[in-house]
């Protein structure tokens, strides 16, 4: 059988108008199918499903005769209304309701192709059950059927309950996103990730949008603090970074600082290895250039000659703690570049990763009571989270093949299973952290 050009797309209103027109000219179903590039079975189903039931023709002066024996029937005295004439000619009682010889008179045009009365020459005087195909009504019925098919939950109650029992604790207790859960449990659930978002939006399964971190609105940003103007050294501007070859820019490491409350002394220094999306988290005792330099010196001692390979380019903002690029480079092959003022989007990858970190350390939370071990716990959980952007892999999965093993071991980082990932502040209390 030749391939049908129409494929599996739905019939449009124009297609239905063409069906109505061709039926009016008594065209066969096969002719209509060829004209529209569809299969005969598709056109047949369309006509039968969406035809209009016009019922029987009736007039105020006579009762419609529905029996095939109407013209030849000689039955009399079916009731006591009359005794001398044929019951078929009675105008007071419908004999078809009481006659044992009744056989319904069915039109072959409506029981077989074309299944409707469109194009029939004797439609006006016909006393049989009539059907008509109308494009406007057919489109309305089709749209209604399509809407109703998408209402409710398209799965069994057992499958739905099993899915909720698995997903709900991971979202409400461990702070995982729906994308994380669906990536880690790929193929286990009866619905897609997008469909489950709609279930949550409708309140199915006891979940609501407030349980999803990304669905919550963030507080309005406060006004920026006045800062001293920083003049970027020649050759270290963002335009110089953009002038590098693309494959070289992909090796850059974006760095930034994450603060707690204003009275805190400590801050987090974060580094994002863009090629693997791996986030390093260091706890600085003070928000100063000296503490940032100590971290780079410690990494240099840990990696040795491998430091230049791991951190060839550094992209940062113009914060005061990063302004001494000479001390950061310190004679290495590493080169520091600065984003334009007020353009955090130029290092957007690390800004997005901070959203995951903020689930564990929300804004307004003091970090003075945290230790470097807590920083390692945060990095372990964030980097063990599977990412759709990485094809379902986690940053840890990629880092094993790219980053030096001594770097991950030296920082005390551990790869967790997807179900043990928790993005909640409770992992910093000690009792909720799993290895």
CATH domain class name of the largest domain: Alpha Beta
Please report which band the strand proportion falls in: under 5%, 5-15%, 15-25%, 25-35%, 35-45% or over 45%.
Answer: 5-15%
Tally of domains: 4
End-to-end distance: 59 Å
Q: Which regions are unreliable across 5 or more consecutive residues at pLDDT < 50?
A: 60-64
Mean pLDDT: 83
Order of helices and strands: HHHEHEHHHHHHEEEHHEHEHHHH
How can the largest sheet be summarized? 5 strands, mixed
**Dominant shape:** elongated
Q: Order the strands across the largest sheet as they lie in space.
A: 5-4-3-6-7
- CATH homologous superfamily classification of the largest domain: Ribonuclease H-like superfamily/Ribonuclease H
- CATH architectural name of the largest domain: 2-Layer Sandwich
What's the gist of this structure?
This protein is α/β, with parallel strands linked by helices and 435 residues long. Helices cover 36% and strands 8% of the residues. It has four domains: 1-66 and 106-151; 72-103, no CATH class; 157-215; 238-428, Nucleotidyltransferase, domain 5, CATH 3.30.420.10.
